[in-house]
Amino acid sequence: MDAPTFAVTDGPLLQLTGLQSDHMGPVDLSLAPGELLLIAGPSGAGKSLLLRAIADLDPLRGQVWLDNQLRETILPALWRRQVGYLPAEPVWWADTVDAHFTGVQDDWLEQLGFQSDVRQWEVERLSSGERQRLALARMLGNGPRVLLLDEATANLDPDNTLRMESLVRGYMTERQAGAIWVSHDHEQRQRLGGRLLMMELGRLAEPALESRA
Question: Where is each ABC transporter domain found (predicted)?
Fold first, then answer.
């Protein structure tokens, strides 16, 4: 099944207004088409809670818009295809890799260091790093407009980390997709560039100058 499409507007790709849960927020945020937003901060600051709230995985208050469409007007399954969430430890439910794939391109798999026969691999034989890389391809196969990446390379070695970064950047450029990437890795944030915000006690703020160095 082809990925659903939305009419692209001249305004923000993603807009958060007063978004909050019991332990996060309120957050007001705007993400432009093709923009990468990096979020850093101490453990327990609410970074994962923010991404899960945007992905409509946890109860929340406030409003979220995608291309000027209010989230409540979009079916939840359709929202989660267009706003893709990749946690540090993705879930796999079927026996083989290909049973999880829809719309996954072979060139994505090659960029991630796999041959096309990985589709026939059994999930139980995959290492944590292989599961992480393949979960990115699985998410991209849905054609998301917004990528929510929660420590997406935490289980990867340096080479595979670079592979994932390159694929995400390429996808964003090709599709004019936006991304919010939570990362504790200072060097990764330096490589990726983009806008940096810090999160502490459930709130987002511009980083101090010394935090940018």
Answer: 8-213
